[in-house]
Amino acid sequence: MNILRRLEEQASAAICNTLGVTDAYADVRPTSDERFGDYQINGVLPLARQRRENPRGMAQLVAGKLELSDMCEPPEVAGPGFINLRLRNQWLEKRLGEDAVDQRAGVEPAQVAERVVVDYSSPNVAKAMHVGHLRSTIIGNALCRILRFLGHHVIGDNHLGDWGTQFGLLIVGYRRFADERSLALRPLEELERIYQQVVALADKDPSVAEEARGELRKLQAGDRENRGLWEKFVRITLEENEKIYRRLGVEFDEVLGESAYNERLPGVVEKLLRKGVARESQGAVCVFFDDDPELSEYPFIIQKSDGAFLYSTTDIATLEFRSEHFQPHRVLYVVDSRQSLHFRQFFEVARRMGYDMRLEHIGFGTILGPDGRPIRTREGRAVYLEDLLDEAERRAGEIIRDREDELGGETRRVASGVGIGAVIYADLSQNRLSDYRFDWDKMVSFDGNTGPYLQYALVRTRSLFRKLGVENWQPAGTPLQLEHASELALARDLARFSESFHRAGETFFPHLICDSLYRIARRFSQFWHDCPVLTAAGPLRESRLSLCRLTGAALAVGLQSLGIDTLERM
Ligand code: ARG
Q: Using CA atoms, how far apart are residues 255 and 260, in angstroms rounded to an integer?
């Protein structure tokens, strides 16, 4: 159950009731300090100020109208006019007793199910995926899973960059420089090398650039041979990327590259002109935002003066297609924050065209190396994702080496689950908008806010039931018996897992789930230390086993929603 939501509803009703208004924002938040209770209602203060009334007096009135006596201790008015709420132990005992039998760890589906398109990963053809694509892939995958778990209908779409002027060059480069052996060994890196080589050549020799333009025109006109080469480039890219997706546990519902929208582009420009959204300017077609102070200096070019279409044109055409085919309520674009100007412009154009779905740019920061600058290899090139994942597995393998006897045939699988899980978790546990420093040692450590730490906490709950020989032990669903302070602390965080999960799904910030899981895992570890489970007597033993079960369920639901492997042993 989403406790925060229930409190918000109650607090809003009490405020409305007190003031005789119909909508008020109660602004309920978890307290920053446990001594003040679990939640705090902040909304009274600004309302009282607005109405020039005494905030404390008003808070008293609101507190008197709260109908929360089943759930909370009597509310306390604090400071200049906050209302503090503390969950009642008895309520927690009953609530968690019920949650313990729930596979969903108490996370109920969202009240309204939406259709959501998630545009993510979206690398470009003929370029090996490097660390820059890691974040979009990991964050997008987590959002798809979180939203699905909440009952939304999700369409995950890999908007592959498979069209554009680079293909003329690539065709010329391929004919001149392709090395069949390298193509067979590391095909994508070879394509990338070819591309760099031909770009360098075209820079020096204008006739090469001219030749490339010719090849591009032929490709666009449907020339068989060029078309065949393009298909080969796309196929190689998809096959190579697929290996990475498989390792990361990523599956798309659609892989519709930019080329899928080609035929719509002229129509899109025409429509924008017809609707008066775009106009011609110096031979190009642009949208201007004169009345928007932030965008007025940045026209959105949708057709260049030579007739070429752009990234922007394709995004509009893609939206048109998605709107026709999926009728989404929302589209999430999981793309580097550095593209925020593009998305601001594009969303404004969509609004002017009359699209009413919610479009959101899910931006993210950069991954930094140890020197605090965007991460690079020692030789100064971008870090290939494949190498990064290999290294993660290698390091995890080293750490679990001493457990090889125990793990036996599973060692490799565990190393991969731990290593890759560590990379995923290190990324998701940060607020996605910030840059973060890539730190191998921290990431694969079994201590602290890391993937392995959480995976290990889950393994502990599972091995407990295994040791008892009661893997299928079922809690009775009756109220728990929460006695020890550590037990209560764990219970509180478990009860609040649902609201964190919902918030992550509403704000598209997966780190909120990580925070919650980490709190739960820490509390669990303290509980484990302080409260004997197996030797406890009768109902207390049942109750503690239920807590272990629920901890396991929350960790499993959380990790799976983040796209991280849950292991039986490690
Ligand atoms: N291929 C683009 C890039 O690598 C990202 C595409 C993101 N999606 C979109 N609909 N614009 O920068």
A: 10
